[in-house]
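REQUEST ID: PR-0412
SUBMITTED BY: lab tech R.K.
PRIORITY: routine
TASK: structure prediction, single protein chain
INPUT:
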Amino acid sequence: MDHLILQIYSQAAASHVDIITRQKLLVENLDRIFADRGDVETWEYHGKSNSLKEFVITSVADFNRMCMEAHSLGGRSFFITQVHSWSRLQVTARLLLHIVYCHQITPLMLDFLHCFGAKVTGEDNPYYGTFYARFSGPAGATGVPTNPHYGMLRYPSRYFVGPSFIYVDFCCHLRRFEKHGNSKLKDPWSLRQMTACQRFDIVNQTSTWIFIKPMEHFQKNFRVLLSGDQRNNPMAPHLLCLTMASENWRWYVDFLRRRLGEFVEKATFASFNASKLNYDISLVDSQRLSTLESKVTVAIAVLEQNLAIGRGMQRHCQRLWRIKGLNIDHGLQETTESDIEMQLTHLDLHKTSCELLLQRIQGTCSMVHSSCCINCLS
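STATUS: complete
OUTPUT:
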């Protein structure tokens, strides 16, 4: 396993990143991140027949058989899931790393794996959100081996499904709030995260995708996308991810605003005349307001990071369009950029709403704190 990880990170030798530390952290966290067994849902889009084939692979042997049987491949997508937010990924480390290596996906996407797993440590901030974008030349120019092997195993070239000449990587880690459905909890919302990683082969105009913990209904929407006129647009799935990361915010902010309303009434209309005490204000109210303030602060941080990812996506998109030979209609290019800009506008408006809400919370906190002091003195 260590040799496989070394082989993967050797692909980033020219990326000016700290490879040694990344390798060490990944090895230390393998047991926390990956399960002992698991199923990987795999979709293959076949361009000539315009069809989508679905597989479930559980091992490296399954993956190799799938590669041998593939013909006229127009793209491949892998979906990695979790049983719940704090469980290990439902895939073995060897299988996922094998997929990454054989498809020559940038090893920098492995950074995102630390956000998932059985528990969160100091190395994997649960509020982490960023992206990687990279344009690369021929495989030989980046030090990627053309005859892959690791451990005691050697794989024939037909198993190596890397790109032909020029390829593009774009990986991002987006988050949003979703309703968890657990009626036992007072707060019906949970912060969910999703990683999307693409390797686009410009020569063959095909993409390999890895989606980790897809958002609710993502696969349903992705299936619709693959059956429409956007299926050959390499940026369309990224736009779908950004669009879904822009959803639910209105309802989540409304929930937070209603929670604040409970305290605003107390703080504004409380009377502390000993004979007319009409509101019970205590330290508990201050604690609950502090918790609410923390939730809004996290929401602002998530929105800021989603905005940064969206802007990076926008720049990546503009650079991609300048590549000669890209088989994308000019009108579709403009539509994609316009849609990305619209999602950025939505995210920015939600961020403004959260910032205004935070100001109200801080003002209410001050009033409640003063009321508590007066209450104690009386």
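NOTES: Residues 258 and 264 are 10 Å apart (CA to CA).
REVIEWED BY: pending
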